[in-house]
Design a protein that fits this description.
This protein is an alpha+beta fold. Helix content is 36%, strand content 19%. It has helices at residues 10-25, 31-35, 39-51, 101-115, 132-137; strands at 2-4, 57-63, 66-75, 85-92, 121-122.
């Protein structure tokens, strides 16, 4: 089931965020960054995002009453003239991947953007992210790269 997140989902969303980063990005970014992620700190971040979600949105995927994934999107953040919407984050717990949660979250994102009169969205993904193929399967295309710094590494 996909539904809009509430502030009561902040801790579960933070758990999915932290666990997904650790399982997806281990070996792709510094261990110190991944080991330093704290669910408690991320809970406060997600509570704030959910509370002030006027222009952006957060949806959660539930399985048997438990949050197993989430998506966050909103206006494109670099004033791109073509892509007015941006998918900021989409994560599903590793044990729940391959069950349609990611595709359903992606579909909810597209619907939300269409309802907000956005007709083109973008997202950034690490070039070495093993989930990169998911975005290509749902119609994503490679456009460009940019360097980012995480934990002191580019």
């Amino acid at each position: 089931m996909i539904r809009p997140a509430t502030v009561d989902d902040a801790a579960a969303t933070a758990h999915v965020h932290v666990e997904s980063w650790r399982s997806t990005y281990r070996g792709l970014m510094p261990d110190a960054v991944l080991d330093g992620l704290l669910v408690e700190r991320r809970t406060e971040v997600w509570r704030s995002v959910i509370e002030r979600a006027e222009k952006q949105f957060v949806f959660v995927a539930e399985d048997e009453g438990r949050v197993v994934g989430f998506v966050n999107g909103g206006p494109e953040r670099e004033q791109n003239s073509v892509y007015t919407a941006e998918l900021y984050a989409l994560y599903v717990l590793k044990a729940q991947q391959g069950r349609g949660h990611g595709r359903a979250l992606f579909g909810a994102t597209v619907k939300a953007f269409v309802e907000r009169d956005h007709r083109a969205m973008l997202l950034w993904v690490l070039s070495t992210n093993p989930s990169r193929g998911f975005y290509e399967k749902v119609g994503g295309r490679y456009l460009k790269t940019k360097p980012i710094e995480i934990g002191g590494e580019t």
